[in-house]
Design goal:
The complex is a heterodimer.
Chain A lengths: L1 H27 L6 H8 L1 H30 L9 H27 L10 H7 L7 H24 L7 H19 L5
Chain B lengths: L14 H7 L7 H5 L1 H6 L6 H16 L11 H12 L6 H5 L6 H15 L5 H13 L12 H9 L9 H4 L3 E4 L2 H5 L5 H12 L4 E2 L10 H6 L3 H15 L4 E4 L2 H10 L9 E4 H10 L11 E5 L13 H8 L4 E3 L18 H4 L1 H17 L4 E4 L2 H13 L5 E4 H8 L5
Parallel strand pairs in B: 1-2, 1-3, 3-4, 5-6, 5-7, 7-8
The chains are: A mainly alpha, B alpha/beta.
């Protein structure tokens, strides 16, 4: 159970980070006139990108929900929850939820084209915000600000929190394996 | 010990060890396997709690907020001290940690920093270290008493012949006896069996006798910085002997000589644990087990030999080479072998806890239905003997050297 939860969160994050990296590359490195940019911005690539975004976001949300249940409802015996665990989990849940709500608001404000359905989570959620006009536009601005604020705060909080394991755990695994290999007692 | 606000000198902790503090997510996998936690169910002894408390202390003393409020809650410091020293350093947590944190290296590094700061170890352990340095052995015996087991063995016939001194015979193989097998009267038969085995196998070897020093591994385990200086002296002395092979009959001495001394200086000889050396002699045909020892035997992996030094197969090969003997494994073996609690200074810090750990291991052994429980380490052997006595177990705890000697027709 615990590894399924971790894998959902892990691959959800890796997927979203990879998609963000693609977006940055399209924004900064890849010429807009290129075949790749046209495919990703106006072609089928855009739909796949949206689909993948919702898929990875949903994986992350499911993982976080399972982690929440395991920690606070089922209270798994080996877990010992402190304020840092709670903060980390709430941070991530808020970040993902605001991300999906923001996407739903954007969709509700867009012209209704069939391609929007590739964002399968956001598209379904957008039904909540249809026909609300200016209220949705204002709420979308607030949600965007909140989402951006949470992202920036997360980056600032990162080195002081258990998020550091994202960097230090793999480094520790690699260093340990390298030391074990040098000693001739690699244990996998 | 100093008060709770004494500083842990962070500069004595290596960047490698400080880095791993943030690799811990407190997932609790270590708690599932920790032999001490399984007995006490006390969260503060778990590796994750130790890391959490250490981080809290270091942040309070060195972090940004420490500039304004550097006081550490007394509970945090006392919980950390309990966790750090009520630990057998068995290395189980390292093998089950998903981040593979080298926990024992971390504990020993922190213990060294605590020793310097005066925050640790606990008073009993500090006295132990002082006595070890003063007497040159943990038994508070005079150096001249290091040959007593030889005289006793020759008198009662358990020693076939007087072992030669390496300073006189200039042999290429040194048998390093170790303090426990030298001074502990319940255990020194191991030294006699080992000498008998090597003599009968025709190995030209020697011992240091009254010239042998303690390996001082216990100082390293408890963080006493005197270790480096004393280890350096030992290395120089052993190098000057001109030997090419050193055989240790003790897992503790082996760990110190094989894993810790290389960090102090270069050794000009190969180091073998007795079980490895016997396995090699069996394969070379120099040792032949001809007398059957009928019965089932189960094997206890000493932490310092197995998890610390990756020696799991050699002792099993020795057991399997004994005619009539059938090896039956316990549920927890090799990397997951349950610690008997004797190591890491736990026996000094909390004797009852160590004894309970040994009793637990005896129960593991009883579950196999084996007649014998064997191990190739004198300290584990002593701990398990105590555990068997406490548990009123019928299982016969026997050192591997004794099994080998029996099968060679020595000391029937």
């Amino acid at each position: 159970m615990r590894w399924s939860v971790h894998m959902l969160i892990f691959w959800g994050f890796i997927g979203l980070i990879s998609l963000s990296a693609i977006a940055v590359a399209l924004e900064t490195v890849i010429p807009e006139s290129s075949e790749t940019a046209r495919y990703m911005l106006y072609g089928e690539g855009h739909n796949i990108y949206k689909l993948a975004g919702d898929l990875f976001g949903l994986m992350l949300l499911l993982g976080l929900a399972a982690a929440f249940l395991r920690r606070f409802i089922f209270r798994a015996q080996q877990l010992n929850t402190d304020i840092y665990d709670t903060t980390t989990l709430i941070f991530l849940i808020l970040l993902v939820l605001t991300g999906f709500i923001l996407e739903a608001m954007r969709i509700s404000l867009s012209a209704p084209v069939p391609e929007l359905q590739y964002s399968f989570v956001g598209y379904r959620l957008s039904g909540i915000f249809f026909s609300e006009g200016e209220w949705v536009r204002a709420a979308a601005s607030v949600t965007w600000t909140l989402h951006a604020f949470l992202t920036a705060t997360l980056l600032a909080y990162f080195p002081h929190s258990k998020f550091m394991h994202v960097i230090n755990s793999p480094v520790e695994i690699i260093l340990n394996a390298s030391e074990e290999r040098t000693r001739g007692d690699l244990y996998i | 010990m100093k008060n709770a606000n004494s500083h842990i000198p962070v500069d004595k902790l290596s960047p490698r060890r400080l880095m791993c503090l943030d690799a811990c997510t407190r997932c609790g996998e270590c708690q599932n396997w920790c032999p001490v936690y399984s007995l006490t169910e006390n969260e503060k002894v778990t590796p994750r709690a130790k890391i959490k408390n250490l981080k809290a202390i270091l942040k309070a003393q060195n972090g940004f907020w420490g500039l304004f409020k550097s006081e550490i809650p007394p509970d945090t410091m006392s919980d950390f001290l309990t966790g750090l020293y009520e630990c057998s350093c068995c290395n189980q947590c390292h093998f089950v940690c998903p981040s593979r944190i080298d926990t024992v290296e971390l504990w020993e590094n922190v213990r060294a920093a605590m020793f310097i700061s005066g925050l640790g170890p606990i008073p009993e352990q500090r006295t132990f270290c002082q006595n070890l340095v003063k007497y040159g052995n943990p038994f508070k015996k005079e150096q001249s008493a290091r040959a007593d087991w030889i005289e006793d063995g020759l008198q009662d016939g358990t020693l076939l012949q007087r072992p030669e001194l390496i300073t006189e015979n200039k042999a290429s193989v040194l048998l390093f006896i170790g303090c426990t097998a030298t001074f502990d009267e319940k255990v020194n038969k191991i030294a006699k069996h080992t000498v008998n085995i090597l003599s009968k196998a025709g190995i030209k070897f020697g011992i240091l006798g009254t010239e042998e020093n303690c390996c001082y591994g216990k100082l390293r385990r408890m963080g006493d910085p005197t270790f480096t200086q004393l280890a350096q002296k030992n290395i120089e002395k052993l190098n000057d002997l001109g030997i090419d092979t050193l055989v240790s009959a003790c897992a503790g001495c082996f760990k110190t000589l094989y894993s810790d001394y290389p960090k102090v200086g270069r050794q000009k000889y190969k180091i073998y644990h007795l079980s490895e050396y016997l396995d090699m002699l069996i394969r070379q045909g120099q040792i032949k087990f001809e007398v059957p020892v009928p019965g089932q035997v189960t094997y206890h992996d000493p932490c310092l030999l197995g998890r610390h030094n990756n020696i799991y197969d050699a002792p099993r090969h020795v057991i399997e080479a004994i005619p009539g003997m059938e090896l039956v494994e316990m549920e927890r073996v090799r990397q997951f072998s349950r610690c008997c609690g004797v190591g890491g200074g736990l026996k000094i810090a909390n004797h009852d806890l160590q004894e309970a750990a040994s009793v637990r291991r005896i129960k593991d052994a009883e579950e196999t239905g084996a007649e014998y429980l064997t191990t190739p380490c004198p300290t584990c052997y002593a701990g398990l003997l105590g555990g068997a006595l406490k548990a009123e177990s019928q299982i016969k705890v026997i050192h591997m050297a004794e099994l080998a000697a029996r099968s060679m027709g020595i000391n029937k």
